[in-house]
Every structure is written in C-alpha cells, then in structure tokens.
Amino acid sequence: MFSFGDIMAEALGLILTWDRDLSEIVLLSLRVTLTAVAIACLIGLPLGAVVGAFRFRGRGAVTVLLNALMGLPPVVVGLFVYLMLSNAGPLGILGLLYTPSAMIIAQTILVTPIVAALTKQVVEDLHGEYAEQFASFGLSARERVSALLWDARYSLLTVALAGFGRAVAEVGAVLIVGGNINHVTRVMTTTIALETSKGNLELALALGVLLLGLAVIVNAGVMALRASAVRAAYA
Amino acid sequence: MRDAVMDILAERPVAAEPLLEAQSLRFAAGGQSLIHGIDLEITPGKRTLVMGANGSGKSLLLRLLHGLLTPSAGQVLWRGHSPDRVARRAQAMVFQRPVMLRRSVLANLNFALKVHGLAGRARADRANEALEMARLTDLASHPARVLSGGEQQRLAVARALVCEPDLLFLDEPTSSLDPASTQMIEDLVNAAHARGVTIVMVTHDIGQARRMGDEVIFLHAGRVAERGSLDQVLGAPRSEAARAWTQGRLYTATNL
Q1: Which pLDDT score, from 0 to 100, does residue A6 have?
Q2: Mutation target vs B (from A136, A143, A148; most B CBs, 10 A cutoff)
Q3: Is the pLDDT of residue B255 over 70?
Q4: A–B CB contacts, 8 A cutoff, strictly below
Q5: pTM score
Q6: Quick check: helix, strand or coil at residue B170?
Q7: Distance (Å, whole) CA A127 – CA A141
Q8: A113, B121, B147, B238: which has the highest count of C-beta atoms within 10 A?
Q9: Which of A132, A138, A233 has the CB atom closest to B89's CB atom?
Q10: What is the predicted pLDDT for the residue at B3?
Q11: Which residues of B185-223 are buried (b: 16+ CB within 10 A; e: fewer)?
C-alpha cells in the first residue's frame, strides 16, 4: 500500500518528465475546452449584449431563461447531445458521437448561457452609463453592441474565465458524449475519474495537480490583465 | 419701376428657415405633465440660451429637441421635416456630466469620427485638429476617464464638434468647472459658433448668458415664460418669473 507522499512523488514525476499519455490528455482537454469557450463567447457575448442593451418584448423571459440555464446539469446536457448525435438521433448522420467534436458541442451548450447571462449584466450596467451619449451619436444597433462589447472587454474577460472554469472542470457531459476513449476522447476530468476507480492514483493525482495549476494560472493571468486595465481606467 | 421694387425686396430682411422647430411639445412622466405644449423655433447661426430655475424643464426640453426623449404629444421638426438618422448626425450634444468612453482621448474622438463614416487620413487629420483646438494634444494617449473634470468636458465638446454638426446642444457644460476651464469651454463654443454652428445651451449663469447668448428662452414650470433677445429678457423681462430670476429674488409660483 502506497502512502500519500509516494503517490504525490510519482505524480510529480509524471508531470516533470511530461509523460506522453499525460501530455496527450492535457492537450486534448485544452483543445476541447478552449474551442468550446471560444464558440460560447462568439454566441454568448453578442446575445448577452443585445439582451443587456435593448428593451424588447419578452426580454424578462429571456433573462430568466438565461439565468436558469446557467445551472444546467451537465449529465442532462450530455444525455441531450448523446440523443441528438446517436445513430437514431437527428444528427446521427454526422457521426460525431464519441469524438472531441461531440465534447465541444456539449461544453458549448453548458458554457453559452453562462457567458450570455454574465455579459448581459456587464453590458446593462455599462449601457446605463452610455445610453444617452450613444443616442446622441445616433448609433445603429450593431454599432451600439460592438462599442459596448469593446468598452466592456476587460470585464468580459472575467466572463470568459467563468465559462472556462465551468468547461475545464466538467466531467458528466463529456463522459457521456465522448465515451472516455483512450487516445481519442480522454480528457483530464474523465481520466481522473477513471484512473481513481482503477486505483491508478498517481496519474489521477498528476492530472488533478495540473488541472488545479491550470485554473490558477489562467485566473491569475486574467486578473492581472484586468487589474492593469482598472488602474488605467479602461475597465 | 422694376428696379425700385427689386431694391425694396433686396432691403427687406429674409426670415431664415428655422433649423429646428418644436410644435405643441408636451412631455409627461409618472402621470405628471412636465412640459406643457411648447412652441419654438431655433434660428440657424444663433446662440440660443435656455434658462430658468431648477425643475423648470430646461434639460428635458433639450433632450426632447435632440430626440433623446419622445414627446407625449407634439413634434420636433428638423429643417421642416421629421428628424431622421441624417438629422440626428447633424446635431451633437454635450451633457452636464461628460460621458467618456473607456478609451484613450484620441480613441474617443476617433469613435465619433468613425460613426460619421470618416476613415484613414481624413479621420486622423480631423482628430488631431480637434485635439489641438481643445488643447489636449499632450493627453492624446491618456485614458479619457482619468482626465480632470475640465479636461473631460473639453474633450466632450471637442468630440461633439469634431464631426462638424450644424447644431450643438449643451446642457450646463460648465456648471461644475472653475473659471479657467469655463473660459476654455466658452472659447471652444464661440469658435464653433463663428464657424457657423448653431448653439442651444442651458445655463444658470447670468454672466455666462451675457457672454454667450444672442437670445434667451426662459422656462418656468415646463412652459416658455418669455423669449426674446438677450438684452430684452435679461434687461427688461416681461414675465414675473424672469424678472425675479434676474433680480435674484425667489419665485416659487407654479403658474406664469
């Protein structure tokens, strides 16, 4: 029986020697997560900005829906995407089930409402300040949205960070639609779950340490950027 | 005979077509009527001051004329027609508290120019001219929001003027500024007026009115109490509200 110290030492060894399996899993995790966050931002930022900046019929309902979807259970999203992509599903013909693309789709569905709902709040606050000036400029809806998104860019980094945090730590949905196939769809979270159940604790712990380190580094980077923007009065 | 008629016609002053007209303008909010059927015309090339006590509707009237608020009744006409996007872009407004975009001083000017369709060299030249005019060249790369109050207001005026509007609205632009900053703002506005920009400005300051005004619209309780030349309204006011104002007396009646 290994002690915690032995397991930790082996885990650190895997990280320091940049084990091939480990690196493959980490890089796939980053690819899936960053792609999903990028797509979620492409959809969620303008959607949130429109809801935040304009008054329209049903705006309250859209806001409630976005807020509610922030708490989407990952396994339910995984099940939904599975049903869509399985051979019997409407998108089965695409053959995406058990591929990284399926995992990206599932994570995008999970992250988009988070990005949209938080963007709506950020943009609504900024628009309260800018509204009369923008009206005086005679801006079109598109000009208004793009200007708001640009001026809120540092606050929106935090929004993207929240999306990244949700996606990178997610396990249920990617497990269902990715299948946790070795060298194909195995990402950090699903590997941690699998290797822990197999008793292969050093790899699980090494991935856990990396996951934690990644979260800390990304957070620190974004916070530093935002702090410098606040100092310069751009945020 | 024909020559004599032509001479008479040539000597007769031609009434300029109003740039902006308010017709029976009313505005209500929260069940309370705040502007009560105002009719007025803004003559091109003039500096019109909107004066009156707090709550008389000056800022509200400015926002209605500029199209930031929709009247409850009545209408505003731009050169005799309903204002469209082109009309909006021929106007600019400077607010009492300047709204600075979260960008540099130069980027604030560039934004206004970009909205008006200017790009490349033309945009850069125009922005640099505006910086010089507002004496902000040294601060071009500074974030606009860290400027002092006076510098921010100068930038707001420069940003409003950089797109060469026909009509400039100013809502108490110097109310929280010191005399030096006030002087610079007044210089910018007067220079714009000398270039042909029509000015409509809200002010509480009688001294500023004497320096800046051609004519005065005096509001009281959401109605035009009096309108006339600067000398007439400030020198020989006909309404009790304007008379009390110019004499520094308190006047709290809600009717005219």
Answers
A1: 85
A2: A136
A3: no
A4: 44
A5: 0.85
A6: strand
A7: 12
A8: A113
A9: A138
A10: 53
A11: bbebbeebbeeebbbbbbbeeeebbeebbebbbbbbbbb
